Amino acid sequence: MKYNSEEEFLKNYDSSMFDKLSMTSDICLISVSDIEKKDYRRNNGKIMSILLVKRDDYPYKDRWCLPGGFLNPKSETLEECAKRVLKTETNLSDIYLEQLYTFDAINRDPRLRVVSCSFVALIDKNLLGQPINANASWFDVTMFEEGNNVTLVLDNGKETLKIEVEKHLKEKTTDRYAFVSKTNTLAFDHDIVILSGMERIRNKTNYTDVVFNVMPPYFTLGELQQVYEVILGKKLLDPAFRRIIADKVVKTDKIRSDGGHRPSALFKYKNE
Hints:
alpha+beta; Nucleoside Triphosphate Pyrophosphohydrolase; Arc Repressor Mutant, subunit A; two-stranded antiparallel sheet; 5 helices; 12 strands; 33% strand
């Protein structure tokens, strides 16, 4: 049928001819923070953590997953949905979220066709100043890579979760990887979302100043190097690290003097 105007088309438009699908926003919050110091003579180490919530309903009842929820298509954008869901499910707010990827595998949700727009953020959980809800928990991440196989061990002090995936370069002209689940530990495809988020933050560390999101106003070069190493998943030689951060930091006249080791010069982010 041909129409003579936009008004005529909209008046006669039949949306039932198209299949329905739902949209969700899922949030991958990645934290790099201090490991609790057990010896005053030693410097704090750094550890990466992921925020998960436990589902209280089917499907995947009692499974851990990323904070996420359905978009209200008539009243909010995907980013507004992500911020609302994050507040509702975890009690966290005022966090800058960057859009990650769209996950659209046909059978990723057993209820109906659901497409997820995921978001990622790098933070220091110790600087949030907001308690999280009882159904949410920070899981410390230990990552092992062997060839194309990646294993994540997530531990919150009460439970330990093991995730195994295969990692393949999706396109040679990009830095995006495809992940294939080998375990069924988390709800939905959130293991793949987590690996994608970690990969995004790792890549951004190489070409942006994202690491300074988790640094205090003043820090030692040793602390900054630990953050880089945790995100990149490898040790950095001191000369190589100094070249990386040469144009990013400025030395101050402040000194940190902790008991047990010699005083250290404090630096700050150059662009603040």
